[in-house]
Amino acid sequence: MIEKQFQRLSDEIRTCNRCGLHQHRSRAVFGTGNPYAELMVIGEGPGEEEDKQGLPFVGKSGQLLDKILAAGGFSRDENVFIANIVKCRPPENRDPTPDERTTCLPFLLLQIELIQPSIILLLGGTALKGLIDPEGKISQVRGKWLKWEQFHVMPTYHPSALLRNPDLKKDVWEDMKLVVQKYRELVDPQHHSPHI
Ligand code: URA
Predict the structure, then answer these.
(1) Confidence (pLDDT) at 195
(2) What is the mean pLDDT of the chain?
(3) With a 6 A CB cut-off, is 57 part of the ligand 1 pocket?
(4) What ligand 1 atom has the least distance to the C-alpha of 49?
(5) Does the CB atom of residue 31 touch ligand 1 within 6 A?
(6) Rounded mean pLDDT of 12-38?
(7) Annotated domain spans of the chain
(8) How many CB atoms lie within 10 A of CB 113?
(9) Is 43 in the pocket of ligand 1 (CB under 6 A)?
(10) Ligand 1 contacts CB of residue 126 (under 6 A)
(11) From edge to edge, which strands make up the β-sheet containing 146-148?
């Protein structure tokens, strides 16, 4: 059932021209993972590799994201859905503008409505600003549960920030521990995580 609605939404995104980002894209990036996941991960927007492949987080920061998720017992093939604030690559990997974020947001809101995850993990400032608070600062709210609509939202640093500054890894590790605890509390008390 969700699959059909996903297909319709994905077709719409693929042909979307609501903002200027469509002019430069090779492929729009809908998202990937289990549509019935209880954990949804939201990043910023496609980079070069994602734009080529039409899949989210397949470049360097994606490899790191997969490792972080795996440490918590999660994987995109099994129990996570991964999407972005904007579905098309901003040129030169610049941040999406507030207008671009707002124009693209209805697609993400529909994805969230269809998936109905228990927990949302927000990666970085753009995800925080785009979904929750345009004035939000990731360094101030990371590691704190936010209640948005009926969802438990954990903001943390974006993996590309960890690649630039490995000192941030310990904070993300602490945030992942909270996500695993909440997942056990809300979804599956037996959830297995290799390190938490
Ligand atoms: N960074 C993101 O925020 N999203 C992607 O899909 C890839 C890199």
Answers:
(1) 86
(2) 98
(3) yes
(4) 7
(5) no
(6) 98
(7) 2-186
(8) 10
(9) yes
(10) no
(11) 32-33, 80-84, 39-43, 119-123, 151-156, 146-148
Residue 196 has pLDDT above 90, yes or no: no
CATH topology of domain 2-186: Uracil-DNA Glycosylase, subunit E (3.40.470)
- The tokens 């602490």 sit on which residue? 174
Q: Where are the alpha helices (DSSP H) in the chain?
A: 2-14, 48-53, 60-71, 98-115, 124-131, 138-141, 159-164, 169-186
Rounded alpha-carbon distances, angstroms, from residue 25 to 9, 20, 34, 49: 18, 10, 25, 11
Distance CA 112, CA 131 (A): 11
pLDDT tens per residue across span 34-71: 999 999 999 999 999 999 999 999 999 999 999 999 99
> Is the sign of the CA dihedral 69, 194, 177, 169 positive or negative?
negative
Q: Which amino acid is at 104?
A: C
Torsion angle in degrees (nearest 10) through CA of 175, 179, 181, 183 = 180
CB 150 within 8 A of CB 72: no
Joined tokens for residue 187:
């979804």
50 CB less than 6 Å from ligand 1? yes
Q: How far is the CA of 8 from the centre of ligand 1 (A)?
A: 23
Centre of ligand 1 from the C-alpha of residue 49, in Å: 9
Could you tell me which of 78, 137, 130 has the C-alpha nearest to residue 107?
130
